[in-house]
Amino acid sequence: MGTAERRAREKDELRRRILEAATALFLEQGYESVSMRKIADRIEYAPSTIYLYFKDKVELVSSICFETFSELDRRLEAIRNLGLTPIETLRRSLIDYIHFGLEHPSHYMFVFCTPPAVFKDMGQDQRCDVNGMAMTSFNRLRVGIKACMEDGSIRVDDVETAAQSAWLFVHGVTTGLVVDCGFPFVERTMLIESSIDRLIRGLN
Amino acid sequence: MGTAERRAREKDELRRRILEAATALFLEQGYESVSMRKIADRIEYAPSTIYLYFKDKVELVSSICFETFSELDRRLEAIRNLGLTPIETLRRSLIDYIHFGLEHPSHYMFVFCTPPAVFKDMGQDQRCDVNGMAMTSFNRLRVGIKACMEDGSIRVDDVETAAQSAWLFVHGVTTGLVVDCGFPFVERTMLIESSIDRLIRGLN
DNA sequence: CAGCATACTGAACGCCGTTCATTTTGACAA
DNA sequence: TTGTCAAAATGAACGGCGTTCAGTATGCTG
User: Alpha-carbon distance B154 to B144, whole Å?
Assistant: First the structure.
């Protein structure tokens, strides 16, 4: 009588294989190089079968990104649990955010640089998917800055504005370095560290 | 005997019309929504005709962006000629950079967020097109920061690193605000101003 | 074994960028 | 005027794409 369970397992398994094939393509060249037909080839199913598991290409890739951005949140959580001072926690988090982006360029660019029109017919639940995840992570930043303010290590007029500025800054460092547009950047680690130093110095 | 000149003028005219049609499409929805076939429809020529005037779609759009980024450079030049103090010049320039990006979202995103693979078979001259322009503008930033350092309004270890950090920051503000990902930002002008304030405070 | 829901497929639609053999155009010399 | 010839423009085709849907296969249940 476990047939229902087995069928469910088989469905899950194929879903997993679709995600796996899509991820491989996504990692290679980003969103544009993911193609339903190429995925179908790799898993040896017809292209239309994929639509039984995902509404469309955007939802498929979004669901890959959701998983990856969960990892970011776990990493930030881990840093928070290190028991460092608020300011040191903030510093480490911001640097790790940038590293996360650099480690997952396709994911990062898809989530933050894809024109909103692409997402237009995503169901509300699916839209909240990645966006909700990003919001959770941003909230850590908000809380982190608040903690720094409360222990006096920084002084800002408005926590929300400061948090948004801080995100815009690390976002800039990330996107700027992720897209290799041939610009002759100075050594990367040094550039990141000194950017974060300046960012924190600016929070006053 | 001015037939050659007239023919050249006619070629230029069609080239201009292609750029015009392409620009209209580009402004509406960005790079992906520009299509050779739609351009052809609008100018009432066959799609293949466009290829007599532009190597491919990337070169066509790049050439649109080159024009627009020249405007940025002129704007920065104009600010420089205002005769303000170095620090005030820097401030105004950084803010204007962000405004430029927000005024030309498609151009900005195409130039700085398109995966390099897309540009891979662009001729060296054409690659330098926009990239060279961006370099010229970046050089203004470098020079501006140097001027501030020399008059003592800021203090940095290394001008190059500081300039790159500064660019990454304004780049982040620009891309973050250009892509409307539904994030509940605080009032835009205030956010930009206070971000730039922090940026400059961080240059010390 | 029949019925039936579930899973899957193949063909098609309408897009896309790009290429190239072919045709059209129009200025010039005879 | 007519014939020639380069330049300009074209239409059809290639191979790709995301997506839909009528129809087929599969395999469990009664």
Answer: 11
Residue B3, pLDDT score: 73
Rounded to 5 degrees, φ, ψ at A85 are: -65, 155
**Chain C: nucleotides under 7 Å from a protein CB?**
6-12, 15-21, 27-28
Decide: A95 and A160 in contact? Cβ < 8 Å: no
Tell me, what's the ipTM? 0.94
* pLDDT tens figures, B124-156: 666 668 988 999 999 999 999 999 999 999 999
Three-state SS for A81? coil
Residues of chain A with pLDDT under 50: 1
Q: What is the pLDDT of residues A35-79, one digit of tens each?
A: 999 999 999 999 999 999 999 999 999 999 999 999 999 999 999
Going by the DSSP 8-state scheme, the letter that residue B153 receives in this structure is: S
The protein side of the strand C contact, defined by CB less than 7 Å from any of its atoms, consists of: A 7, 10-11, 14, 45-49, 52; B 1, 3-4, 7, 34-38, 47-48, 51, 56-58
Least confident of A2-6, B54-58, B110-114: A2-6
Tokens of B165: 């950090």
Q: Which domains does chain B have, with CATH numbers?
A: 1-54 (1.10.10.60), 56-202 (1.10.357.10)
Assigned token pair, B149: 């350092």
Nearest to B191 by CA among B174, B167, B204: B174
Pick from B34, B94, B128, B168 the residue to mutate for testing the A interface (most A CBs within 10 Å).
Answer: B168
- A131 contacts B199? CB cut-off 8 A: no
Best to test chain B binding among A113, A158, A193 (most B CBs inside 10 Å)? A113
Shortest distance, CA A23 to any CA of chain B (angstroms) = 17
Spatial distance between the Cα atoms of B141 and B144, rounded to a whole number of angstroms? 5
> How many angstroms separate the CA of B41 from the C1' of C16?
14
